[in-house]
Design a protein that fits this description.
CATH topology: TIM Barrel
Strand order of the largest sheet: 3-4-5-8-9-10-11
Number of strands: 11
Helix content: 25-40%
Structural class: alpha/beta
């Protein structure tokens, strides 16, 4: 049986940990809308334990997942943590309800968020702490500077960023070494290509969230065609394509299902050929939203 180790390893930054190049994203083990506890508590715990059994040694979470629920489940399932397991968490988002997210990059909030994550995860120092999202109401340097202070106090080992562009990464790097950047990236969403190129230049890991496309997992005719040709699922092709995209890539597919977890992990052993990669080179055409469809109809009716 293939394991997460089949995809090789990546080192997070110049002096960060080295982990297998297929991790696990723990957002989906919470309730609907990333809110509250999961419907199947024991199932969520089992998935986390199975991930580690399958060679996953990088688990990504955040204080806002639940909120707090994901971190608590990780500690329940895996603490005391096996040697070599890296837990990365994030701070900087507030939750007001299901599917509701609000940035908060104030230094006071980031300190409070980090302290809470330390307690819930049951650790004295967080392996990788990521600033979840820039807050337009707070100078970016102030938010990142707070993480630097927390690192200097011994509460954070390494610092990462999330939902940032090249300029933000370069700015943060003037303040501290950055070991990871986590942005949305998949076969249909490739706006972070410049950040991935920067990851290869600077040596940080790129962690794609929604790596199989979120609600449109493995979407696109090319993905389906390649999957049929090589005898894999579209989700596996989407993950294998990411792994081939860059040696700095660290996908973190998440799931509540052990069967889906095993399917994801098996993608680590898939090698796409040149013809497959050429077919996947162009992103699939995105589907219009209902609002875009309504607007197009309105223009036609008005003669526009």
């Amino acid at each position: 049986m293939s394991t997460a180790a089949a995809a090789g390893t990546v080192t997070l930054g110049a002096d960060g940990p080295t982990v297998n190049r297929l991790g696990f994203g723990a957002m989906r083990i919470t309730g609907d809308g990333i809110w509250g506890p999961p419907a199947d508590h024991d199932g969520a715990v089992a998935v986390l334990r199975r991930a580690v059994e399958q060679g996953v040694d990088f688990i990504d979470t955040a204080d806002s997942y639940g909120p707090e629920v994901s971190e608590e489940l990780i500690a329940e399932a895996l603490h005391p943590y096996p040697e070599g397991l890296v837990i990365a968490t994030k701070g900087g988002y507030l939750r007001d309800g299901p599917n509701q997210w609000r940035a908060d990059g104030r230094p006071s909030h980031l300190r409070e968020a980090c302290e809470g994550s330390l307690r819930r995860l049951g650790v004295e120092r967080i392996d990788v702490y990521q600033f979840h999202v820039p807050d337009p109401a707070v100078p970016f340097e102030d938010s990142v500077g707070t993480l630097v202070e927390l690192r200097d106090e011994g509460k954070i080992a390494h610092i990462g960023l999330s939902n940032v562009d090249v300029d933000k990464v370069r700015l943060a790097s003037t303040l501290t070494p950055i070991v990871s950047v986590q942005n949305r990236y998949n076969t249909g969403t490739r706006s972070s290509d410049p950040v991935i190129d920067l990851a290869e230049e600077m040596g940080f890991a790129f962690i794609p969230w929604a790596p199989v496309g979120g609600s449109s997992a493995g979407e696109g005719k090319a993905v389906a065609a390649v999957a049929g040709r090589i005898g894999a699922s579209p989700v596996q092709v989407a993950l294998a394509w990411q792994l081939a995209r860059s040696p700095q890539m660290l996908p973190i597919p998440g799931t509540k299902s052990i069967a889906h977890l095993d399917e994801n992990v098996a993608a680590a052993a898939i090698t796409l050929g040149d013809a497959d990669l050429a077919e996947l080179a162009t992103p699939p055409r995105s589907r219009p939203t209902p609002r875009q469809v309504a607007s197009k109809i309105k223009r036609r009716l008005s003669g526009g």
